[in-house]
Amino acid sequence: MAIRSAKLEVRQSYLLVTLLTYIMFFMFAMTTESIGEVIKLAKGEMGLTNIQASALHWSTMAAIAISGIGLGFLADRYGRKFTIILGLSMYGVASAVFYFGETFAMYLVLLFITGIAIGVFKTAALALIGDITSDAEEHTKQMNMVEGFFGIGAIVGPLCVVQFSERGIHWSWLYVLAAGMCLVMIIMALATEYPDMKKSESEVTLGRTFALLNNKYALGFSFACAMYVGCEVAIFVWLPTFLDGYSGTEIATVLATYAVTIFFVLRAAGRFLGVWLLNHFDWKLILLVYCLAIFLCFLFSGLLGQTASIFLLPLSGAFMSVVYPTLNSKGISCFDKSEHGAVAGLILFFTAASAAIFPLLMAFAADWIGGGDMRYGFYLATLLAAGLFGFSLYNLSQDPAGRVLAETR
């Protein structure tokens, strides 16, 4: 009876930790994935150009990149629980200060701090997922579930901003709401028992994270994740601007208004569907089919014009659903669990750097080549989608990580 009771307590502890991880991803998705709607409002509020407004996005993403590669080792060195609480505390305080924000510079500083915080608690959370799963396949399925809740947060956040705007409430209240959620999660984390973490036989340092740059699996999956994120951020950062002022049929106009929300709904639903797909099909085949569909959505949007984009670009969310969590989990699963924090941090660096740089490149393409027309930015995104499809084709035909994934437990 004592042994059975102990096992039950362990399962309950894992359940609470998993629930906390889901809420964590939901919460920070509310803010990061709302940035397209925020940019649209901030441009009018503060008289910003596309390039200036893009700083509201890349300031967070640049900070996540710095934090991911510079602080990712904290989860392996000091433990998942401590690192998660540290990150949530930083995020909560910075988000609460948004209530007092008035200037563009102040918003940039606060967004940079929230990005550092996300890099801290997200790498710890990603490493924690490895602690509570037994193999690479289970890791991928759990990652898709976590990203599914991220997807729900990405739906709720932009809707909140839209509703706030319609009621005359400033968009910064979204961050005040996130601060309250952080307080609740910190209390939950303090009261929750975390699973034992596998200790590394050697000292965990920042140098070990940089040493991963010499590993082909770490680099390969990091670059693939970066290409994916570039395609994703193209949608939620610049699609509202691209479709702003669109006039067409009544149905098309409504779809244009809620294009990003539709994209996030399809992405979230697809991630939960992805768990089922991964139980029945080879992940490499799923990746290939989905990456091809993403590329075609971008390609035909460029060829057919703005009206086609209203339908095809949001539809790409259904196909983006399983790509990132699958690539991320496979990259992490190529390594021992004692290194999962550092690996997660490295992949996060590449993805956040892509999320910071690529929207800025799209803004340059739109302002300098297209005279402000964001269509030219989406031409650039189409090239990235083609690169992601090329990676998935190589992955299916050559299976470069097959052996190491089979051996890692």
Briefly summarize what is shown.
This protein has 409 residues and is mainly α.
Task: Describe this entry's structure for a reader.
The protein is mostly helical and 409 residues long. It has a single domain, classed as Growth Hormone, Chain: A (Up-down Bundle). The protein contains 18 helices and no strands.
SSE order and pairing:
Blueprint: H1 2-32, H2 35-46, H3 50-71, H4 74-78, H5 80-97, H6 104-131, H7 136-166, H8 173-191, H9 206-211, H10 216-243, H11 250-257, H12 259-280, H13 283-304, H14 306-320, H15 323-333, H16 340-369, H17 375-398, H18 402-407
Keywords:
409 residues; single chain; Growth Hormone, Chain: A; mainly alpha; 18 helices; disordered N terminus
Number of strands: 0
CA radius of gyration is 20 Å
Helix-residue proportion: over 70%
Low-confidence stretches: 1-12
- Principal-axis shape equals globular
| Rounded mean pLDDT score | 84
Query: What's the CATH first level?
Result: Mainly Alpha
What's the CATH topology name?
Answer: Growth Hormone, Chain: A
Number of domains: 1
Query: What's the helix count?
Result: 18
What order do the SSEs take from the amino end to the carboxyl end, as H and E?
Answer: HHHHHHHHHHHHHHHHHH
CATH architecture assignment? Up-down Bundle
Roughly what fraction of the amino acids lie in strands? under 5%
Largest sheet: none
Structural class: mainly alpha
Distance between the termini: 30 Å
The CATH superfamily appears as MFS general substrate transporter like domains
